[in-house]
Amino acid sequence: MQEIWTEKYRPERLDEVYGQQRIIERLKAYVDEKSMPHLLFAGPAGIGKTTSAIALSKEMYGDDWSANFFELNASDERGIDVIRNKIKEYARTSTSSEIGFKIIFMDEADSLTPEAQAALRRTMEKYSHNCRFILSCNYSSKIIDPIQSRCAVFRFRTLLKEDVRKWIEMIAKEEELDISDEAKELLIRVGGGDLRRITNFLQISASTTSEITEEVVRQSANIARPEDIRELVQNAVNGEFREAKKKLDRLIIEDGLSGEDIIKQIHDEIYEIPIETRKKMKIIDRIGEAEFRLVEGADEQIQLEALLADIASKS
Ligand SMILES: Nc1ncnc2c1ncn2[C@@H]1O[C@H](COP(=O)(O)OP(=O)(O)OP(=O)(O)O)[C@@H](O)[C@H]1O
Ligand SMILES: [Mg+2]
């Protein structure tokens, strides 16, 4: 079986992490000092938070790293009691390394309720003599202030296009892929700076051919043709709701596209469609609302139809 590329190409060392230079410099200083405070890593998915936590530990402890690094996922472990017990058990054993503390990495810390976070805060204090916590989250606003104030906060940035391009080219070279410029651009655009997502699209593309064209990427990333999305929006803008709905059904049911992907593409395409600026602004505002609802778990078909109905009725 083929190895998953996101793991195969996960950087081992801090210096190999793409982008995030300022953060990496500070993490390297912790390694040099053999000391660090509790850390909070915040930022969108797939941009190097877990990778940096692991690379930091590898550099801090060398070969012993896995004995000194304990990973928990806040959303997997049901309830703070399970977390507390696991942390207690782990923290009880002393560290064999000269560093004097072990690292507890907690992913998706923002999925804990405020009550669970309050309990976590006490746990952090109780074990801070021999453990340092690295908390990772997508939204630091969901982390209670008392925890934030006990941590050095690092805001990971979405990777710049140039870094993403270099990443794609690195993998293409390693895997001997022939990838067109258009395919790279499309990957950069649909990946939205998320290297995990981009790497997965690339691996799926490469599973059928080593000649990666725009069309190959489009199929593996399951994205609609820009023309289809443009026609869909144009229908709605012209007030032709039934036509727009028919196209939407085809994208969701026949092509199997997800609501979130369709909405992102509508957002991209709207800029290309000739409509009066004021109208465009209203539509963009409405897209924002629908996207928010989808992320919060609303029904995608209903939300997209509501969006199209709204556009159609205002035109
Ligand atoms: N900055 C980066 N440099 C190099 N590779 C990266 C970077 N960010 C992500 N990757 C690639 O994507 C994969 C996933 O990254 P990582 O686990 O660090 O994401 P994350 O920021 O922790 O995301 P999440 O919020 O979903 O946990 C890595 O294994 C690696 O292949
Ligand atoms: Mg992670």
What gyration radius follows from the Cα positions, in whole Å? 23 Å
Please name the fourth-level CATH homologous superfamily of the largest domain. Answer: P-loop containing nucleotide triphosphate hydrolases
Ligand identities: adenosine-5'-triphosphate, magnesium ion
Q: N-to-C SSE series? A: HHEHEHEHEHEHEHHEHHHHHH
Quote the distance from N terminus to C terminus. 53 Å
Q: Major β-sheet, in short?
A: 5 strands, parallel
Low-pLDDT windows of residues? none
Q: Count every beta strand, where a strand is a DSSP E run of 2 or more residues.
A: 7
Q: In the CATH scheme, what's the topology name of the largest domain? A: Rossmann fold
Instruction: Please state how the strands of the largest beta sheet are arranged side by side.
Output: 2-3-4-1-5
How much beta, percentage-wise? 5-15%
Structural class: alpha/beta
Q: Please tell me the overall pLDDT.
A: 92
Shape: globular
Q: Given the structure, what is the number of helices?
A: 15
